[in-house]
Amino acid sequence: MDTMRERFVSTTSQLLDEDARLALVLAEISKDGFSAARRRHPDRVINVGIREQLLIGAGGGIALTGLRPIMHTFASFLVERPFEQVKLDFGHQGTGGVLVSAGASYDWPAGGFTHMAPGDVALLDTLDGWSVQVPGHPDEAEALLRQSAARDDRVYIRLSLQTNARAHASDGKPGFRTLREGRGGVVIAVGPMLDHVLAATEGLDVTVLYATTVRPFDSAALRAAAGVQNAADVVIVEPYLAGTSTAAASEALTDVPHRVLGLGVSRRELRRYGRMDEHLTAHGLDPRGLRARMARFLPGTPR
């Protein structure tokens, strides 16, 4: 199976052939994969080099001409480093574009903390009007990319080397999917966290919702899942900063007695960079770690 990033390259190359409104802006990352596309469309495939502020600024300028820019690099260099340009060149200017990241929270530990971005979604939450999509499989990434390329708004697509064994939302439709139903609580699994959540909740009387689009937050789906209970216990498992979506969940359940537990990447920096799976375990996001923390939170859950 190809990776999400490989699928991004092949799908975007095809989209550039099909839609003259699209433009791609790179900052060195993935440039080799787009060599053929750049030869075919030298005016719409631009590599600005290792200049991430320019990456976003160029994308914003392209958007002002009426084109639809797709901007790509590692998440830490796409959202964190050029955040002022994201805020001004798209939000303030009222333009649209698609940010597509690689690297996720700790996909390349050998790159060190500079290449980790667990806070990217939380940072975008400070801005208005951004749709945030977190696919859990290459098929889902392709569907979300195709839909986002055809839109006019501001979209962030967060790709990762972590992936679920199969796609559960390859139609790209927004909204949470109900994969299991139960009465002992609601667990929301975001993107590549799904397989770990399914393993961790095996045998538990809980509802499992699957999310690939997290902004806008699907309040209606959460309310519907919590509606079978007099009070709601909600666990959100996200592949980025723990607690990023707890406020959104609490707002959705304002008039319902509820508790929310946000599980994800901790704020603590792991300085022994190791491997991706070791980071997953260290943050308690493997099935065993998730089960242990759910057992402490959800009433009646066996350890």
UniProtKB/TrEMBL annotation:
SMART domains: Transket_pyr. Transmembrane segments: none annotated. InterPro entries: PDH/Transketolase (IPR051157), THDP-binding (IPR029061), Transketo_C/PFOR_II (IPR009014), Transketolase-like_Pyr-bd (IPR005475), Transketolase_C (IPR033248). It comes from the Bacteria. Pfam families: Transket_pyr (PF02779), Transketolase_C (PF02780). Gene3D superfamilies: 3.40.50.920, 3.40.50.970. Residues 2-167 form the Transketolase-like pyrimidine-binding domain. This is Transketolase C-terminal domain-containing protein. The lineage of its organism: Bacteria, Bacillati, Actinomycetota, Actinomycetes, Kitasatosporales.
